[in-house]
Amino acid sequence: MKQILTFTSICLFLMLQAFGQTNSKANSKTVTKNNYVNEVYRLSVSIPENWRLYGQIKNDTLKHMSIVDWRLPKNYSKVEKTEIENSISIKSLSER
Q1: Could you give the CA distance from residue 18 to residue 7 in angstroms, rounded to a whole number?
Q2: Which of 17, 41, 81, 95 minimizes the number of CB atoms within 10 Å of its CB?
Q3: Cα three-residue angle 35-86-93, rounded to 5 degrees
Q4: Can you give the pLDDT of all 96 residues of the chain as single tens digits?
Q5: How many C-beta atoms lie closer than 10 Å to residue 71's C-beta?
Q6: How far is the C-alpha of 10 from the C-alpha of 32, rounded, in Å?
Q7: Is 64 left (phi over 0), alpha (psi -120 to 50) or beta?
Q8: pLDDT score recorded for residue 64
Q9: Where are the beta strands (DSSP E) in the chain?
């Protein structure tokens, strides 16, 4: 049973790698990148230009952390028939 599960997992992984990595030039968009840098916590991130900075705490001295949030472009969901807005948040912690 363990061999069957291992074989199935490997096959699924290989299929996802083969089909998930296809990136034709017709479907790809050229997006320029911006850099976000927080020198206090040594955080450097390259982000696409169409992401918008939503909020940030550069140096929280009480909790010893930094938080930065970006809003991603809206996507239309055909299933839900509405626009969906996603975001990304990065939290940096320092050693005390």
Answers
A1: 17
A2: 95
A3: 55
A4: 777 777 777 766 666 665 554 444 444 344 567 888 888 888 888 988 888 888 888 888 888 889 999 999 988 889 989 999 899 998 988 876
A5: 15
A6: 35
A7: left
A8: 87
A9: 33-38, 43-48, 52-60, 65-71, 75-77, 82-84, 87-93
Classify 47 as helix, strand or coil: strand
* Residues in a beta bridge with 48: 33
What is the rounded distance in angstroms from the CA atom of residue 95 to the CA atom of residue 91? 13
Residues in the chain: 96
The CA distance from 68 to 18, in Å, is 33
CA–CA distance, 58 with 65 (Å, rounded to integer): 8
Residue for token digits 């040594």?
A: 42
